[in-house]
Predict the structure.
Amino acid sequence: MYENISLYDRELGIKSSFSSDNVATLYHGDCREFLKEVPDGSFQLIVTSPPYNIGKKYEKKLNLEEYVSQQDEVISECVRTLRDEGSICWEVGNYVDNGEIVPLDILLYNCFKEKGLRLRNRIIWHFGHGLHCSKRFSGRYEVIMWFTKDNDYVFNLDAVRIPQKYPGKKQFKGPNAGQYSCNPKGKNPTDIWEIPNVKYNHVEKTIHPCQYPVALVQRLILALTNEGDIVFDPFLGVGTTAATAVMNNRKAAGAEIVKEYYDTACQRTVHAYKGKLKYRVDKPVYEPTGNLAMTSNPFAGEET
């Protein structure tokens, strides 16, 4: 249906061959083949959630050495195509074998470190729903490893600040007594993110069984890129990264081997471009109270 993807939607003009001028370049096939045509230093942000090697229908289960080798090959090309001021965010969970878990962030860390990348945060994505375990505690988190290529990197904190819990709190004493003690632009969201995952009744839900939410990737895109930058997802899935990038005035690139996921990614990217994408907005798990009763507590600090 979408073999000539450039004709799929003339207004957006999705392409399958990479150019930095494209609003969106979505490739049906292996990301390693796609990356061969991408020049060095093309992408400002590379963000993805790779297969976890647990035998889902979109992956071939490998032994761990083969899996790490395959990931390392992709990561090498990602580092090559990343701008000096750019970032890589690898969102992973656990590999599970006969009830034993292997944290993939630990398994893959050296693939990045050996290439000179610097780990800036190990972000914990916590969510409330998932599979229930009977012989261990049920898993309710995954990890985003955020690496940079250099010490001089894009980080727009103000773009992703969340509301202060006590926005009316003021300094108790000292030269700033009586002044607001928290940043009026909002609070740093820290490295633990409470964002609902995509379940069967979620407004974003598509045919993909392991889909991450727009709110998750949007924080990364807003914080680690500027408008007009290119965001790349080597394991595109149903296009959450590409759609979110386009929705926020960035350019998108991605590769996906499963045709039905690729088609869905194209559709969602066009919908995002036209302002029609359905998604759950990013919002804090609490509502700020503005409670001034806390202003007299000299020990009540608020991170800025």
